[in-house]
Amino acid sequence: MMSDLILVVPELILVGMSLVLLLAARRIQGTRVAAFGTVLAAVAAVLGSSWVLSLGAKTGFGGIITLDNYTQFFNVLIAATLALATLLSVKSLEGIPRAEYHALLLLAATGMMIAVSAFDLLVLYLGLELMTLCSYILVGIRVDNPTSNEAALKYFLLGSFASALLIYGISLTYGVTGTTSFATIASTLSGHEAGSNVLLLVAMGLVAAGLAFKIAAVPLHSWAPDAYQGASAPIAAFLAAGSKAVGLAALGRVCLAAYHSEAQALSVVLTGLAGLSIIVGSVIALSQTDMKRMLAYSSISHAGYALLGLIAGTSEGVSAMMTYVFFYVFMTLGTFGIVVALGDRGESVEGYRGLAAQRPGTAMLMLVFLMSLTGIPPTAGFAAKFVVILSVVRGGHIGLAILAVACSVVSAFFYMRVAVNMYMNEAQEPAPSHFPKAVFAALAVAALVTLIGGITPGSLALWAVSP
Amino acid sequence: MNEYIGIAVSFILAGGITALMVGLSSTLGKKHPTSTKLAAFECGKDPFSLPVGRFAIKFYMVGILFILFDVELVFLYPWAVVYGALGFSGLVEIGVFLGILMVGFIYAWDAGALNWK
Question: What distance in Å separates the CA atoms of residue A45 and residue A454, rounded to the nearest whole number?
C-alpha cells in the first residue's frame, strides 16, 4: 500500500499545496504567495514524477494507476500548463479571491494528472470529473461579471451532459466485458470478433463522445467559445491547453490500451470527429471578431488535427498526437498570454491595430505564435502539423490529409488578419502599459518552446513515446 | 409464463374500462365551463401560489455546509463496519480523510461562513 503511494507523488504534491493555500487563505489574500506556491508545486510535481519514473515504470493500487513514459510526458505538460497559466494570472486577479483561485487551479491539475495516469475507466472518470468541476468554478469565478456567470452555467450544463455520456459508455463497457480495467478489457475483447458486438460499439462511441467533449471536438464543441469568452484569459488558456491535452491523452490511452482490438470501428468515429472539427473550427473562426472566441474556434480545429494522429490506431500515430499536443499547448498558452498582456485591448481582433509600431517586441512574439498556430515553418506548429498529417497519409487516408492541408490554408486567413492588423494598420488606441515580469516569463517560455520545436522538431521524438 | 396471463388480463380490463368511461364522458358529456370549474381542485386551497415569506440568506449557507459535511461523513459508516479488517492502516487512512475534511471546515470558519450576523 505505502509503496503504491509513490505512484501518486505528483498528485499528492499538488493536493498538499492546495490544502495549504486553503488553510492560509485569509492571510495571503493581498500577496503573491499563492501564485508562487502554485508554480513551486508544479515544478516539484515534475521533479517528483521524474524521480518516481527513474525507479521504473509500474502500475499500482491493484492495477488502476500507472506511471510510465506516457504518463510522465503528460504530467510534464500539465505542470507546464499550470505554471504558465498561474504566471499569466498575475495580471488579472483584481476582485478574485487569490488563494481559492490557485487552490482550484492546483486541484484541476491534480484531476488532469489522475486522468492521464488512470489505467481503469472509473479512475479516468474520477480524474476528469475533478478537472471539470474545478474548471466550472474557475470559469465563473468573476462573480460580478454576468458573461462569466453565463459561461460557467452553460459549461456546467453541457459538461454534466457529456459526463453522463462518458459514464454511460463506461457502464456499457462493463456490461459487455465485466470489468473497467484497461488491461482486462483488452484481454476480454481479444477473444471477440472485431465489430461483432453492437453494444460494445455503442459503448465505445459514448466513451469517445464523452472524451471528445473535453477536447471540444465537433459536434461536442459548443461549450468552448462561450466558456473561453466568459472566462478570464488565463483560465481560457488553462482550459484550451490543459483540458485538451488531457482529453487527447485519455483518448490515446483508451484507444491503444483498452479498445485496441476494435481499432477499425474507433477509427471511423475518430475520422468523423477529426474531419468535422478541422472544417467547422477553421471556417467559423473566419467570422469572429472577439479574440478569445476566435482562439476557441482555432482550438477546436487544432483538436481535429491532433485527433488525426489517433485515427491510424498505431503507436506511431499516438506519438504524432503527443508531439502535436506538446507544441499546441505552448503556442496556445503563448497566444493567450499576449491577450492577457494587452488587457482589454487584447480581447478584440481590432485591438491589435498598429501594435507593431507601439510595442514591436510584443507584436513580434504574437507573430511567432500566430505563425505557429497556422503551421508556417520555422515554428513548432509546422513540425506538429507535419507529423500528424504524415501519420494520416501512412494510414492511407489521403483525402483526410488533403482536407487538413486545405483547412490549414483557410486558417491562415484569420490568423494573419491579426498579423495584418498589427503591422499594416494605424493604431487607434493608446499604447498598452508594460506587463508584469511574470507574464513576460510565461511568454518567453512559450516562445522558446515554439521556436526550438520548429528548428529541431526531432528533439521531442525520443520523448514522445506511446504506451 | 402462464401465471402472468391473469395479470395481463386484469391490466387490459382495468385499462379498457377506465379508457372507456373517461372517453365516453369527455365525448358525450355536456360542457359548461366556468372559471371556477376549470380551476384545479385541491382541498379548497389555491393550488398555485408564489412561495411566500422570506428567510435570511444565512440559513442557505448553513444548509450548504451541513449537506457538504454530512454527505462526507456518511463515508465513516462503511469504514466503521470493516474497521477490524483494515487495522492500523485503515485508521491512518480515515485520519487523512478527516484531516482533509477539517481543512474544509477550517476554511469555512476562516472565511466567516459560520458567523451568525
Answer: 27
pTM for the structure as a whole? 0.88
Kindly report, residue by residue over A218-253, the tens digit of the pLDDT: 899 999 999 999 999 999 999 999 999 999 999 999
In chain A, what residues touch B89 (CB-CB under 8 Å)?
1
Complex prediction ipTM: 0.81
Query: Which string of b and e fits A298-324 if b means at least 16 CB within 10 Å?
Result: bbbbbbbbbbbbbbbbbeebbbbbbbb
In whole angstroms, give the CA distance from residue B56 to residue A410. 56
**B28 lies in some domain:** no
Domains held by chain B: number: 1
What letter does residue A67 receive in the DSSP assignment? Answer: E
Write the single-letter amino acid at A211.
L
Q: Which domain holds residue B97?
A: 57-110
Alpha-carbon distance A216 to A277, whole Å? Answer: 8
At A417, the amino acid letter reads R
Task: Report the residue of chain B nearest A23, measured CA to CA.
Answer: B107
Q: Do B103 and A19 touch (CB under 8 A)?
A: yes
How far is A338 from A268, CA to CA, in rounded Å? 38
Closest by CA position to A467, among listed A57, A127, A113: A57
How close is the nearest chain B Cα to the Cα of A16, in Å?
Answer: 10
- Contact list, B110 vs chain A (CB under 8 Å): 23, 25-26
Is the pLDDT at B61 greater than 90? The verdict is no
Q: Do A23 and B89 touch (CB under 8 A)?
A: no
The residue in chain B having the minimum alpha-carbon distance to the alpha carbon of residue A1 is B89
